[in-house]
Amino acid sequence: MSESTNALAKNQPSSLLRRDVRFLGNILGDVLVHQGGNELLEIVEKIREMSKTLRTQFDREVYNEIKETIKSFDPDIRHQVIRAFAIYFQLVNIAEQNHRIRRKKDYERSAGESIQPGSIESAVKELKERNLAVDDVLEIMGRISLELVITAHPTEATRRAVLDIHRRISDDVMELDNPMLTVREREQLRDRLLAEVLTLWQTDELRDRKPTVLDEVSNGLYYFDETLFDVLPNVYAEVERCLEKYYPGENWHVPNFLRFGSWIGGDRDGNPSVKANVTWQTLLMHREVALAKYEEALRTMASHMTFSKNIVSVTDELLQSIEKDRSLVQLKKEEPWRNEKEPYRVKLTYMLEKIHNTGSRSAEEEGKYSSPKEFIQDLEIIERSLRNHYADFVADHYLLKLIRQVELFGFHMAKLDIRQHSREHESAMTEVLARMGIVSNYSELDEAAKVELLTGVLNDPRLITSPYMDYSESTQECLDVFKTVKEAQLLFGQDCISSYLISMTESASDLLEVMVFSKEVGLYRREKDGKVLCTLQPVPLFETVDDLHAAPEIMRTLFEIPAYRASLDDLNPLQEIMLGYSDSNKDGGVLTANWELRSALENITEMANQFDIKLKFFHGRGGALGRGGMPLYRSVMAQPPQTLGAGVKITEQGEVLSQRYSVKGIAYRSLEQATSALIKVGMYAKLSQNEACASEWEEIMEQISQASLNKYQDLVFRDKDFLTFFRESTPLKEIGELNIGSRPSKRSNSDRFEDLRAIPWVFAWTQCRYLFPAWYASGTGLQSFYNDKPENLATLREMYQKWPFFRTTIDNLQMALAKADLNIAKEYGRMVKDPSIAERIYELIREEYELTSKILLLITGQQEIMDNDPNLQESIRLRNPYVDPLSYMQVELLTELRAIREKQEDDPTLLREVLLTINGIAAGMRNTG
């Protein structure tokens, strides 16, 4: 693929990126020749050239030729051609990631002469330039909070084994920048990369089975083990370095404002495999990784802390702690350190034994750490002693980082959230109340009666469940989850689980049910003095457009219930609320969903302020544009400052994890940008600098949103042929066979649109190049206000220039339109059995695409879509000719496979090739669901 990579390289803005892409492309070309002969490389090049020609100018002859060429492939050649294009994209993605790291290093080499936009230093510098005093900065740093929550949403199409190869290739390619390499070393580096790419070629990128939940837990912990455990404290260190630079003289130790959490092993919504025992096993795996990382750090310290009492004077505090350990801790796993003149090594030996015992339930309590706080106390004893004999550099290098790591990760590594669908709680509550003779038909009661009943149960100290009763399997499982949470908090600490998310929250009773079940195991209890303690907070998840409208009144109802309001007092008072971007988008379209989510943010905040309750909003964004996806820093900047409240949570899903966190340099840059954005939003909130947003603009957005909603629902919900078109013209069914997640693609065994999860909905539209959920109906909405009136266009342009919300919305629409390709999408219409349906629906979508493109260009004043981001514009333009052949082949393969299956037969080889095209297109588009 050397010519193709040269073509791509010519247009890249950096010569080093061009070099890397060309270098990797040449290596792939060598692998193709080695594995399939010159014939394979020639075929790949021919397909690429034809695809490129069609992109430059459509030619019916070339179009027919590429279709005939693809149709003529025998299965073996076709299989190799698919993989050649797919692996090429993997290599280009690695080169682009490395270039991001390189750009950051270039800024750092400037020694402060130029500060990289989006860096932590750029944000702290702005604090200083805005004349904020130290006290103001302390207030901002004490208020901001961001928790990133990794999920097992099935959108990561890349296997762990393949990710490992990618990481090794990435490390080797970075070595190309080393000016000290000799000619021979460069040859050896090329040989090593040739071996890695050949290994990639001979590694199966498809999973042979669906991952289990514990497989997914292990995959999630991979990012903590490989990158996050080391990178996260480095982000804090950079914040403190910049604060010291611009605000010298203050002893900076910033609060823990940036953390990671997880849903994996706790999210049971629609996943019957996530049982209470799986959640318990998840917590054990979390602790195992955390303790292993601490053991590794302590052993590293022990190998370096060779300080001798013959030369330095250690503190009495350290010596006393050693004597105390000696009397309480029996060394079984560790060998005693024989040289008493090296007290740090003696102390660290006992600390290693205690860390080992902490992971054992059978070890004596005196010989283990009862909490992370105890571990930190030991580390601080060592730190103070080091500083006592002026070993400050050693204390700074080893102790400060490890202390921060223990503060961040504790013994539980990541806070685990529990999530379940509201109907499961209602069903269990109905059975429990009936068995106790309280009410026989709880589920049939109206909302007011449910709230009254549940409030009464909360205020009554008596229990409504009994260990001597036999409940149905689903009800017993529901009860077991709460018992598991209680046991987990006792063993791992209250920080291990503190939020219980309720999917499809539609009423106040949905939260009260969870609170009643919490009361049954002591997670909600009233003390003798009347004070309520609640260590598991029910968190509503508002997902549909109707639920977003109802959210403020639902929360008002709860805040007015004394038994509920009292549960918040111990939390300062704080209420977490989750907003779902995926289902609201699927329900009402992207433009309406974004506006309704923003309106809900402001309306709920305004209501909560009346009760003096702080809110922590949890944004359930997916990786794809059609599910609220965007760069992390833009997700943070998208928050209106007045809604910052008690912090922000954001989901990090699927392929986003590998794109952002598989390489340390990329992980650091992503978290640095998020931190920079967080500091800026905190600054705007401090300065009461809310977004410029005239009330007139909000009225305009309301009009635009309503017009967009009508257009979207006219097609998606009210056109009788739309679902047929969607199912037959996209690889929806085949995506379900990709083995990328433990969770089913539907909430129930139903073909209803409402039961289809948002992830396969978005994934399928991305594969066939429509990207429908990310832009459809937006043009109609915007046109409804513009209406070809110059004065209205001037207003839209002012909104784009001055209103961050509107600008982000328009720019995301641009990105979606740039990635979509309606000419390729039309190919998929050939799979629709009724050609009239295919033609009619396609024309509706095409007309809306053209209208949306036209009005976006008018609003932005650009000549072409994505002129605002030339680098991304060029990347998309240059990727398309390489994605196109995979799309052509996917249509042919799907047509053939479905014809075979209609005869009640199957072809596993054909299915495998379909799945390979899905992987390849996902890599090329850099999106799944």
Summarize the structure.
This protein has 929 residues and is mainly alpha-helical.
List keywords for this structure.
globular, nine-stranded parallel beta sheet, 929 residues, two-stranded antiparallel ribbon, 64% helix, mainly alpha
What would your notes on this structure say?
The chain is mainly alpha-helical. The chain is 64% helix and 6% strand. The strands form two sheets. The chain has a nine-stranded parallel β-sheet with strand order 3-2-1-11-10-9-8-5-4. The protein has a two-stranded antiparallel ribbon with strand order 6-7. A hairpin with a 5-residue loop joins β6 and β7 (532-534). The longest helix has 42 residues, at 15-56. The radius of gyration is 29 Å and the shape is globular. It starts with a helix and ends with a helix.
